C-alpha cells in the first residue's frame, strides 16, 4: 500500500498548491483597475503634513509624562487605556484597537530594603552613604511611584572590598589594571557609563574576580565638563549632581524566561536560577556627586589621561583610599543590592488601519510606552508624536476621505526598558505572519533628543524614502531650508552614486527595531531629531533615564515650542504614507549595493593578504556582490519601465514582494549561534576592528593568532560561505520571478 500513500501525498500536495494559487488570486481585492493602481496622493499627503499640530503634541506629552509609568505599573496600565480610548474614538479613531498581554520576568528594587552603597570602617561603622534617591529639585523626583536608582536584573548581594577605578569597565580596562599590578580579586570596581554596554561592565569585572560594580555618569561624558548646581538642571539641560541613570543590565533582549517563544501562559519557561544574560555580580548605579567623593579619595597611581574626567580631581586607580583623605586608608566600600525578580503582566497596544487594496501587507509604526520615571523624552516624546499622527489619519479615515493602499499597524510596546520585551514577544508570536506580510517597520522612540537636526538610522533600502520625505518638509525656524538640507549640514557622507548625502546610521539593538531587523529581516528605520555634535560631546541627552526627564525639562530646554516634535511627526508621517500608499514600494534595493561594495573593499584591503596566507579566497564573495549589483540594477529598470506604462496589478504585486522580501534573504539563523536573535548576516554585532561583513570580521579577529588549519580558520571559511550564499540568494530574489 506504499504506492497508495505516495499517490495520496502527491494528490494532496497538488491540491494544496492549487488552493494556494486560488487563495492568492482572491487575496487581491476585486474592483476597477484604477482602484488596484491606487497610488500616493500628494495633495492628501500635504494636507496631513499641515494638520500635524505642535501644540497637540505638546499636550500629549504633558499627559503622557504626568506620572511615572514604569513597566507593568498601574500608571503604565492607565496609559494602555488612554491609547485604546484614543484609537477607538468615534471621530478620530482607527479601524480597530486591541491590547495583548504577556507574562514576563522583570526586576525591581526592594521597597523594604533599599539598595545602599556605603564606605565602612574596619569595625563596620558607616562613614559615608551614597544617596538612595535623587534630589527633589522640582517636586517631581519624590513620591512612592518614583523607582529608586537601580541596575535591573543585577543579582542581590552585599559584597564589600577595597575600591578600584576601572574607567568604562571594558575588558581592556580591567586588563590594564592587572598590568599595573593591581589585585582585583574581591574589590569593588567604580566604572563610568560609556565604552561598553551596562551589563558588560559587570560581566568583565566578574571575569577578573571583582565582587561588585558601581556605575556613574561622568560630567565629562554628559555635561561637557559642567557639574555645579547653577550649571545643571533646573538651571540648564545638564544632568544635576544627584542624577542617576537607571537601565537594564540584561545581556539579551526579549523576556528572559521564554527566548524564541512568546511569553504566553502556555509557553515553556526556563528556570530563573539558570537563565543566562544576567549580571553575575551585584551592581548599582550612583550619581556623580557621590562618585566624586569616592573617586577623589582613592590612592594609587594616577589613571591614564584618557581615563580622567571632570570631577575636579586627579583620578587614581586604587585599590583603597588615600591615608590623608576623608576616610581611613583601610576603609572599604559595601554594595548592598536587594533587587528581586517578578513575573508581571505587560501589554502591547495595537491600532489598525486596514488597507483598501492590499490589506495583507503591513506597514508598522511603533514606539514603547514604559519609562523608568516620568520619561518625557524617553519614550513619551515618541508616543506624543505617534498619538498626533494617528489622530490626523484617524480623522481622515472616519470622514471617509482617505484609506491607505496597504494596512497600517500602530504599536505601543510594553517593557522596552527591560530589554525590548514587548516588541520581541510580538515578533515571536507573529513570526510567520510578519515575515510573509510586513513591508517595513518605522521606529520613533525618543523623537527629540534636541532641536538641531534630523537623525535617521536604517537599512539601505529605506534611505531613499527618508530622503524623499525630508526634502519636502521645511526645517523648523530656518527660513525655508528643508529638513534634508539642514540634515546634510550636520551629518553627511560622500556617496559614489549620489555625491554628498546625509548619513544614514546603521541599526544596533538600542530600541524596538532590533527584533524586526535582526530576527525577522524586515526593512527598518529609526527617526529622531538630535543635537549639534559640534556644540556638545554629550553621549545622549543629559537627563536620560533619570527622574529629571520631565515635561518641564522638554518644554524649557529640549524643544520649546515643540517645532522639532512637529518636524519628526511630519517626516515619519510622510515616510509612513509613502510606504503605505505608493503603488510601487519606495524601497531602493540598489542602495544595498553601495553597502556591499564598501564591506567588500574593506575586506579586500584589510583582510585579503591574511586570508590568502590561509588559502582562503575572496573571489566567490566578489562574484556574489557583482551578481547582486546586476540583479538590483535590472530590477530598477523593470520598475522604471512599469511606472511609465499601465501595469497589471499582479505585476505590481510581484515586484513589490521582491522589494519587501529582499531583507529576509540576508537571514541565516545558524550564522551566529553564540548570539541570541541575531540572524542578519550584514548587521549582526561586529567585534572585529575591520568595518566589513560582521561574521567575517569577527571570525578573522578570533583566528588572527591561531595556527594554520585551526578550527578558528575553518570558521572564517564558514562565515565566508554563509555570506556568499546569502548574497547569491538575494540576487536570485531580485531576478524576474519567472526566471527560476
Automatic annotation (TrEMBL):
It is a single-pass type II membrane protein. The chain crosses the membrane at residues 6-28. InterPro entries: PA_dom_sf (IPR046450), PA_domain (IPR003137), Peptidase_M28 (IPR007484), Peptidase_M28B (IPR039373), TFR-like_dimer_dom (IPR007365), TFR-like_dimer_dom_sf (IPR036757). One of its GO terms (cellular component) is apical plasma membrane. Keywords: Aminopeptidase, Calcium, Cell membrane, Disulfide bond, Glycoprotein, Hydrolase, Membrane, Metal-binding, Metalloprotease, Protease, Signal-anchor, Transmembrane, Transmembrane helix, Zinc. Its cofactor is Zn(2+). Residues 348-556 form the Peptidase M28 domain. Gene3D superfamilies: 3.50.30.30, Transferrin receptor-like, dimerisation domain (1.20.930.40), Zn peptidases (3.40.630.10). One of its GO terms (molecular function) is aminopeptidase activity. Aminopeptidase with broad substrate specificity. Has lower activity with substrates that have Asp or Glu in the P2' position, or Pro in the P3' position. Lacks activity with substrates that have both Pro in the P3' position and Asp or Glu in the P2' position. Lacks carboxypeptidase activity. Lacks dipeptidyl-peptidase IV type activity. This is Aminopeptidase NAALADL1. It comes from Canis lupus familiaris (Dog).
